[in-house]
From TrEMBL:
GO terms for cellular component: cytoplasm. This is PITH domain-containing protein. The lineage of its organism: Eukaryota, Viridiplantae, Streptophyta, Embryophyta, Tracheophyta. Residues 5-176 form the PITH domain. It comes from Erythroxylum novogranatense. Pfam families: PITH. SUPFAM superfamilies: Galactose-binding domain-like. Belongs to the PITHD1 family. It comes from the Eukaryota.
Length: 176
């Protein structure tokens, strides 16, 4: 029964790729030849050979602004079994975070990813914390094996735009 309700939620969600403000994306501690585009951009993120890789240590801090306000339901993070992300902290509408102040703020949600999650399983977020999202900061704290390098093959964000949500709610009432 639980899987049925999860899939029902997912059917109303869209990949928020088209709503990302690409000019504003930042990623701290990314490798110079393994950038955040490899994990986020359409086409790149479907190629498991392309990764976002960390540079100096295992941590990554990714800032993703949106072109309009969105409601975020779930996140998909794919990565290799060993170097894939483990502890992910998500911050809604927190601009200009750095490694020096990331622990000064309580995250909107925290997920500890299993190797199974890293195969592309959506992680459902605390929906109430992600109602009016203008930007999302993803802090990857560590990886599965504790190695120096973290690799991310894909990051996909699922939800709805605020306007779309209102229209769909209206349409569902008319259908009944």
């Amino acid at each position: 029964m639980a899987s049925e309700s999860t899939s029902a939620i997912q059917r109303s969600q869209v990949d928020l790729l088209d709503y990302i403000d690409w000019s504003g994306i930042e990623c701290l501690n990314q490798s110079t030849n393994q950038t955040v585009s490899n994990a986020l951009k359409q086409g790149y993120r479907e190629d498991d050979a392309l990764n976002l890789g960390s540079d100096a240590d295992e941590q990554l801090l990714i800032y993703i602004p949106f072109l309009q306000v969105v409601k975020l339901f779930s996140i998909v993070i794919k990565g290799p079994e060993e170097e894939g992300p483990k502890t992910i902290k998500l911050f809604s509408n927190k601009e200009h975070m750095g490694f020096s102040n990331v622990n000064d703020y309580p995250p909107s949600d925290t997920a500890v990813l299993s190797p199974d999650d890293l195969k592309g399983k959506p992680v459902v977020l605390k929906y109430v914390k992600f109602q009016n999202v203008r930007s999302l900061t993803v802090f990857i704290e560590d990886n599965q094996s504790g190695s120096e390098i973290t690799k991310v093959q894909k990051i996909a964000l699922f939800g709805t735009t605020v306007e779309t949500t209102d229209m769909k709610a209206l349409k569902k009432i008319e259908d009944h």
